[in-house]
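Bench log, entry 3. Co-assembly request; chain sequences pasted below exactly as received.
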Amino acid sequence: MTMHDEWTDKLSDYLDDELQDGERAAVEAHLRACRECTAVLHDLQRVVARAQGAAAVTRPPLTDLWPGVAGRIERIRQPHRLAFTIGQLAAAAALVAIVSGAVAIRLLGPAAAQRTGQVAAVAPSDAPLPAAAAAADDAPRAAQISLADDQYDAAVADLEKALKQGRGKLDASTIAIVEQNLQTIDQAIAQAREALAADPANSYLSGHLVETRRRKLDLLRRATALTDMD
Amino acid sequence: MALSGDTAVRGGTNEDVALAAAGDASAFERVYRTHVAKIHSLTRRMLGSHEADEVTQDIFVRTWQKLGQFRGDSAFSTWLHRLAVNVVIERRRSFAIQRERMNDDPSVLDFVSVAPARADLTVDFEQAIEQLPRGAREIFILHDVEGYKHREIASMLDITSGTSKRQLHRARMLMRKHLGGS
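Structure output for the full assembly:
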């Protein structure tokens, strides 16, 4: 490195006002005496000015990149579209019908359900229960059950026992519908567990399992509440 | 098909950003068309034409994923630009260019062809930028074109401010030669 290079190396910092006062004064003193460094400084000023001008000049891509972006976004939005078997999808769809059906039994009565032969899509699963059923829902065995395995299993066992004890109070067709729906839910839970075992990190499956178990609990609670109404 | 900025850019407002953050892909397309020219220019300068398209797409996909994190503390364009710079830097790192980039070997100066200044200054200047060694180019673009400070560049690239300053000076001296300086 020559003596000259030592000065030129400071010129960018000088230009950007990055030097301490003493260094700045020394550079300015050198520039007054050195035409070569002054010329370099002017060239650097031109370069910086051109760079700043270039910032305002933008060019779009030569091809439209949006279709590629849109395709990748779509895959992000529906990451699990192809991840399930038809059986799994059918089980998920059945769950909606099951819980709605349970509410239909509640609201319309077993006779109505039997009369129509359809229990699905009558009311949303979170439709309000009649007062007696709501009171039954407040019973300790059904209150704020955690879905942690031990608590959940205990609550399900408790409700199944209560349902068994009260089944004599229910119409035969109601019992059949409840049992059929519980069987379908159990199948859905088993399928969800199986799928989750194959893909443990799948958050959708995990949430689906939790929701399915919650719906089983909900159906048991509602069926048990029916036995308490009479 | 080249996109005409004026005809393609419609909307791209804060409302579109909010709609896109809520999952509206049509609104996000308007946001894309508003900003794609600037983002593509950034990627083209920093990575070269051959990588610009792919990385631009990466940037907008990442933008879509992170829109929920945009709080409006700064202008959306500023937020997007910083996100784009981060994606570009990650790209560079993923190709293990970092080590080469910080090579202070002065022989890299020889890699840059010296061309006389021409009338089509903008194109010529862009071509000159593309010929800079990667490390010098990156810092030259971030500092002199995009307006970042040395301390910001140092933070982004995980280098010291001193290294940033040295690389910038080297880039300017190379550009000076390209533009016809002695």
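The CA atoms of residues 58 and 87 of chain B lie 8 Å apart. The first helix of chain B runs from residue 5 to 8.
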